[in-house]
Amino acid sequence: MAETEKRIETHRIRCLSKLKMFLLAITCAFVSKTLSGSYMNSMLTQIERQFNIPTFLVGFINGSFEIGNLLLIIFVSYFGTQLHRPILIGVGCVVMGVGCFLQSLPHFLMDRYEYESTVSVSGNLSSNSFLCMENGTQIFRPTEDPSDCVKEVKSLMWVYVLVGNIIRGIGETPIMPLGISYIEDFAKSENSPLYIGFVETGAIIGPLIGLLLASFCANVYVDTGSVNTDDLTITPTDTRWVGAWWFGFLICAGVNVLTAIPFFFLPKMLPKEGLKNNADIIKNDKKEKQKEEVKKEKDGITKDFLPFMKSLLCNPIYMLFILISIVQFNAFVNMFTFMPKYLEQQYGKSASDAIFLIGIYNLPPICIGYIAGGLIMKKFKITVKQAAHIGCWLSLIEYLLHFLCFLMICDNSSVAGITTTYKGMQQDLYVGNTILADCNRDCNCPTKTWDPVCGNNGVSYMSACLAGCETSVGTGINMVFQNCSCIQTSGNSSAVLGLCDKGHDCSMMLQYFLILSAIGSFIYSLSAIPGYMVLLSWNSCTYIFWSFSGFHMFTLGNFEMW
Prior knowledge:
Blueprint: H1 2-42, H2 44-51, H3 55-79, H4 85-104, H5 106-109, H6 158-172, H7 175-186, H8 192-218, H9 245-260, H10 278-297, H11 301-313, H12 316-347, H13 351-380, H14 384-401, E1 453-455, E2 460-461, E3 471-473, E4 480-482, E5 494-497, H15 504-536, E6 542-543, E7 546-548, E8 551-553, E9 556-557
Antiparallel strand pairs: 1-2, 1-5, 3-4, 4-5, 6-9, 7-8
Helix pairs in contact: 1-4, 1-7, 1-8, 1-9, 3-6, 4-6, 4-7, 4-9, 8-9, 8-13, 12-13, 12-14, 12-15, 13-15, 14-15
């Protein structure tokens, strides 16, 4: 008798340790998958500049992850519980690693990145051929045909990024549904929320690490190590700058592959956590065998799967939860995806600073919102129906709140000949050919090249030549242009590389925008906990994550009617 009890106790300890091993492994998997996702979203502007592709194509590349996820999610979620779930999750992590590696591959297959400039990076800077030269022979007139301004894709290597992102979406498919269902099947009912809380913590830590990694990589030049960065004439704040986007993908690939290793050593099934005696163990084993027999008796998708889907779509609570998901992902997630580019173009921030600000202002409110939402649900004992309504209204408020962001804008940069006359007066963007003026008409300047300089009068110019500058001192980014005839100021007129700062008013608008986004992040996370309550109200056998173009659906079944 004593030997039997000892064996049961040993079996229980082994079960608990393996369950906790799985909990640690799935938490790391959540960290790795959200790390890769947040890094990908943060590098969209760098990828756009590297391949010189239009923004709509960037959006398609970003959405390709959902395409990959959509291809398998329904089948993996529904039939995955019949297979070895830990191994499926491990294979998914490896596939994600392969996808991340594939995304970094174009950097090693392409030539070095070359940005548009009037100043030659490798040429003889002492010749001053890029300055105002009255006896010059080369001149470019402004383009009159709008079609000439359309981007020409430099390389089709962006297809690697697209395919890699699809593969990453395919690999991510089994992690969430099979991981959560595994915990629900073998953990105590009272311990399950705590374990899922640990997993969700990993989903918060991952984006934090991803944003920090993206901030670092965006500040490093894309071809660092193969070019002399001292000769560069652009800085990270320049719209032509491309950071080392490929480096972070290699790190994400390594992290995903390492995360997969523990799953291959975990068992297909575990005894239910907390069983007290041998009879319970035997009873639990019988139940598991009965479940397997029932699954084997199902003779096809039309007999069980389609009726199950029909019952879900006819449930009002489920459909309300779908509405919550649509509103949330079309407001918060889509804006969060393109926020780095928006901060760069609207407020003149570098990609590195933009990504860092997003992490600082948005992740802490999300963490606080998760905690506050959980406390509210526990204190007021919110029911499933109440949780669905709360989540829906909070999501709607957060969605409407994002429209206020359109009010937090800055004025256009003062660029002579485009938004401002050479005399300093504001003008419309499309007022005809005003790029050339009396002060630079005889300089034989290229007028199709964007290589901005900032004059000491606070006005930007398309190039040092169009500013009428005749001499220069220094090299690289430290170059200073002097004797600029178009810069009207007392004393010596000079200019430096780069656009002028947008000023204090724009900085204040940036602060308002970030505060508003922080409030939106808090409301988003506050509504997420009621959403999870609706999600987990179904007995966890099936999880369906249907996502395409910002449309996501979450489901756990077997289905129950209210």
